[in-house]
């Protein structure tokens, strides 16, 4: 943290230096000859000239008045442009802290070592991202956003990858150099005969080496100490050092710097940003990003360790009747497995819980309950990888009943694949017999888990009751929203509700409203449409839905406590000229608001799928007004339950191949909101269109943010 904070401060130094009037920005156009000529006309004698990494030219001269002075000059005129500036106090302080923590060699060692550790973290982080994305080839493909901190940790990691590697590598290199751990080298020049060459005396300004070398290439040039021919010009370039005869301009000796010296030079430039404002800004942003990595990394680890808490076993594995085996990468599945374990114990059952990788013989087991997540591309979590091979090796004397619960996410193509693999292996095993069919749970849905537990309890006749997790929310942080109006229930049990924040709040269509009904305080999110200063939500009332029932009973002026979550990945595109919105069911809500944002007459098309013509009633007024005001260019509604024209929204998209391809090609944007099932079907069709018409892949447009989604 110290290194990145001080690093951020130090990044300002080259930026401010480059902005100083002494910095010469066209060093690559001024030759040594031009400079030497100018200096010779201005001063009595020149001792040396050096060009700093920040493009300052410093000359040590004897003035016409006979004074010895050192100052910044302009190399074209030779004139003094300023006195040498001293490094500012803040930079001196930050440099010391950054390099050695004010602990001299010990501090230098710590900083160097930490830089090395950061390099290791970058390497392992890269491997983890590749593993997560399903291989190095997919390193830059779109990241599925499950958790904001994790998402930005990865995105920022990809963005800052190159500067991070450079900062750490050069940091390590500079430390090694300070501890003299790099190969040594000594600049040596061969002794040269100078006597006969002294005869062909030419003007310094006419030396071809001086005419052909620009100041951007040099570090220093030392002028001959006396007029004796054995005193030379010593020219230090970035890659070599030259000894030059002071009368003939002949190069008498060349010393090419070894790789170690060049690497030191470049390490310093790359690590400090000297000489380049752009690189210094990149370093500044990267230093900030390291602070974010620390914060998000810590937060994720903390969250994970909290979740990975596994209950203590009371019974031995050999005596337990119920064996719960868990496969989890980030701990969520443990949470569910623990709830189930607690419920069994509370019911007086002998249960034993462990990881899938420790699978073995269980002498008294009658029931096996397997709960596992899926990772990578349909692979096992790391604590479950060995299960299938262990299953083949392990032998049992008894028959065991089993149930498999898969935890996964519909956002991945291989939904709950590892649970399916396990289920298939158990099906073919003579010692195992299924209780209830494999159960798949999307996005850690508690309701789905409760349904499975109830089904399992019904089958086994063990009346367990799962304790709901207590909500982890700070009720004080919730804001008040007043109900402005609520529609009646539509034919398909959907309704709209208009809310207004009691206190001023910033929000936009596409953001999410998190509601926590008092009954269970579990978060439910609804996509927001913004009309004026009102929030419009579209809700489907489920028979036993706690939140949807609660919302459906609200009346005008009632107060709802909720929290707005910004969702910038699903806002109305700022620049696109053609925008296609695709929704089914209540997914129309954010689009009702976005239509209002189309004030500059861009082409806006809405494809919406609903059940029947009667389902449109509650939206009719808003949709009619949108068309009348020209904010919505075209509306296509697909009815899935009308006998005359049965069509799903994805069918409508499939008939518009040329149109879709054209919109994408013209940098248009497609927004999708509604059920995950619809999303998958639409994406499948879009992929076909993109492949056949544009010879590109879906992910190109996803990465380009031309396809935006918010499905549930
Ligand atoms: C990198 C990564 C890859 C995933 N791959 C899949 C997958 O292929 N199929 C799937 O159904 N779920 C996939 N998921 C979702 C997880 O299985 C799901 O979030 C699960 O509930 C996590 O449980 P855990 O916290 O116990 O590991 C993936 C999640 C991540 C972070």
Automatic annotation (TrEMBL):
Q: What is the name of this protein?
A: NADPH--hemoprotein reductase
Keywords noted in UniProt: Flavoprotein, Membrane, Transmembrane, Transmembrane helix
The Gene Ontology terms for molecular function here are: flavin adenine dinucleotide binding; FMN binding; NADPH-hemoprotein reductase activity
Q: Which PROSITE patterns is this protein grouped with?
A: FAD_FR, FLAVODOXIN_LIKE
SUPFAM superfamilies from the UniProt entry: Ferredoxin reductase-like, C-terminal NADP-linked domain, Flavoproteins, Riboflavin synthase domain-like
Organism of derivation: Kordia algicida OT-1
Q: Which GO terms describe its cellular component?
A: cytosol
Q: Name one Pfam family in it.
A: PepSY_TM
Q: Which residues form the FAD-binding FR-type domain?
A: 476-573
Q: Which InterPro entries match?
A: FAD-bd_FR_type, Flavdoxin-like, Flavodoxin/NO_synth, Flavoprot_Pyr_Nucl_cyt_Rdtase, Flavoprotein-like_sf, FNR_nucleotide-bd, OxRdtase_FAD/NAD-bd, PepSY-ass_TM
